[in-house]
Amino acid sequence: MFDEIKINPLQRQKYLEAGYWGNRTLLDCWEDTVKRCPDREYVVDDRGFRYTYRQMDEAASRVAAYLQAIGVRPKDVVSFQLPIWSEFALLTIACLKAGAVVHPIAMCYEEKELIRSMRITESKAYFGPTFFHKTDYESRILAVMDQIPSLKGVVLLDSARERTSSLVSLREILAQYQPLKKEECVHELTGQDIAAILCTSGTTGGTKGVLLSHDNIRYSEEAFYKELKLTQEDIMFMPAPLNHATGFHHGVIATMMIGAKLVLQQKYYCREAIELMNKEKCTYSMGATPFIYDILRELENNGGDLPFLKFYLCGGAPVPGYLIRKAWKFRILLCEVYGSTESVPHVFVRPEEVLAFNGTSSGRPLGAIEVKVVDDDGREVPKGMPGEEISRGPNVFVGYLKDRAVTDGVLDDEGWFHSGDLCVMDEDGNIHIIGRKKDMIVRGGENLNSNEINDHLEGCPGMGDHTIIGMPDERMGERICAFAVPLTGHEDLSLEEVKAYLREKQVPKRFWPERLELIGRIPHTGSGKVKKYLLREELQRRMDGEKQ
Question: Is the confidence at residue 352, as pLDDT, over 60?
Fold first, then answer.
């Protein structure tokens, strides 16, 4: 199943000898925490669910018993498509107990994406809601389950309504199955075995399955919470989707490793988020820029404060200095973090350095993680000179699922992950991200492939040559902007017409342009590549003109 794993043997030996890697798995971490603080709360959500570590352990043991009963074996993949619910943590722990590989799926995945992702992972089980946020997930999985031959079980979580099919429910599993005893859980795995497959479009385009070992995840979070000096007294508010590396690693996993508490809000509403954080006395949070942008604006406009929140870790895009200063007015330290699913946020600005840097740095690497800035030939560039950011360490992923060619394109033979991001490094090892080599749009922390979006526009009535660029946005970091040459007779082509075309083609909304700019000619190089820097300059001129 995971024959394509790529690990440099010298680095493996180095990490094993240093104790960064070993036989310790995430299940071992979980069992240690349950033993140490069984009655401390682990997960709380805004639906009224509260689990202590002991309660979560028992519930997860029941689900693990179900997984074993339907034939899920160690290293098999279990998929789940869940909102930001406490059950996400429950299923993660259940998979660890059964020795299964965690495969969380984005809520936006529709039929084709479900089929593709679960066929390539050879998933043995699927968990999802009956209905959530105007979407019938029950009908969706029923429509595709026969096309996923590996599936042995489909489980529904009752949400807005009871299920209408004969599929088993999580409620029934928790009522009918006896919890696995500790000795019945799978303990024969090592840290080098795969723990999770997280889906990402990354900086190399196209959806890929990122293979992460127990060691990758464990080291990443141990290094992270040690630098942040987090303890079991800390309480985290996690607004980001839990299938993302941010929510999964730093929300579900990190808190359970230290015995801290995780607070979840199923759908983000700003004022409710503030009230929830204050009610639960959250001490820190983490997510993309839009979350903290909205919170600070709400506090400024409508009053209130967050007296317990010490810092907010902000990823997905560079954090501007004005936002850092605005956060500090409410005594919140806004720390930029940088990384990717392949090399989970491995650089960050320490809380004590935030105000001094004031948005001019993305920070330094964590623990044993190495970072270099290189030119197109892989040679390290002098300090202060721009180049590509590459990283190597015990946290770096071990390959893309069933795609060795793409793996080899970004993970070199010496273990360095080539991010595709451009940065400069100062004399102290701090880097500052200045752009991307690839044409990616980072919208609200989500990487969107501009080339893929552009392909969807092909055939749009009235549209000639076209291309996609990222449009700067204070709240989202970037939004999607389409430049298009209108055909004769369609000089007044509108954004609404473009959206109507994409709606008819059933293109997911996250790929729809949010601004349309008409232009007489798309500038190209001699080899046919679009000169996007010229379009960015033109867009900025037009936006500046609107402001004036």
Answer: yes
For residues 371 and 357, what is the distance between their CA atoms, to the nearest angstrom?
Answer: 19
pLDDT at residue 195 tops 80? yes
Number of Cβ within a 10 Å radius of residue 297: 14
pLDDT of 440 strictly over 80: no
What are the residues whose beta carbons fall under 8 Å from the beta carbon of 123, sequence distance 6 or more?
77, 78, 79, 103, 117, 148, 150, 151
Residues 6+ apart with CB under 8 A from 369: 223, 343, 346, 347, 391, 392, 393, 394, 395, 396
Tokens of 453: 């979006």
pLDDT digits (tens, 9 = 90+) for 457-500: 989 999 999 999 999 998 888 999 999 999 999 999 999 999 99
In this structure, what DSSP letter does residue 44 have? E
**Side-chain half-sphere CA neighbours of 304 within 13 A:** 19
Contacts of 48 (CB under 8 A, 6+ apart): none
- Identify the band that residue 166 occupies on the pLDDT scale cut at 50, 70 and 90: confident
- Taking residues 514-536, report their average pLDDT: 83
- Contacts from 464-467 at CB under 8 Å and sequence distance 24+? 465/521, 465/522, 466/522, 467/522, 467/530, 467/532, 467/535
State the amino acid at position 150 in one-letter form: S
Distance in angstroms (rounded) separating the CA atoms of residues 467 and 312: 35
Contact by Cβ (8 Å): 7, 175:
no
| pTM of the predicted model as reported, rounded to 2 decimal places | 0.83
User: Which residue from 361, 311, 306 is spatially nearest to 338, judged by alpha carbons?
Assistant: 361
Sheet holding 101-104, edge to edge: 168-169, 153-157, 125-129, 77-80, 101-104, 194-200, 208-213
The answer to whether the CB of 517 falls within 8 A of the CB of 465 is: no
> Would you say residue 529 has pLDDT above 70?
no
pLDDT band at 161 (very low <50, low <70, confident <90, very high): low
Q: Residues with Cβ < 8 Å from 139, sequence gap 6 or more?
A: none
Other CB atoms within 10 A of residue 533 CB:
11
Q: What ranges make up the beta strands (E) of 124-163?
A: 125-129, 153-157
Average pLDDT, the chain: 92
Judge whether residue 162 has pLDDT over 70.
Answer: no
- Give the pLDDT band (50/70/90) at residue 301: very high
Is 126 exposed, middle or buried (CB count within 10 Å of its CB: 0-12, 13-18, 19+)?
buried
DSSP-based three-state secondary structure for 539: helix
Residue labelled with tokens 């501007």 = 320
Rounded to whole angstroms, the Cα distance separating 44 from 52 reads 9
Contact 247, 346 (CB under 8 A): no
- How far is Cα 411 from Cα 415, in angstroms, rounded to an integer? 6
Other C-beta atoms lying within 10 Å of the C-beta of residue 188? 9
Helical packing angle, 86-98 and 53-69, nearest 10°: 60
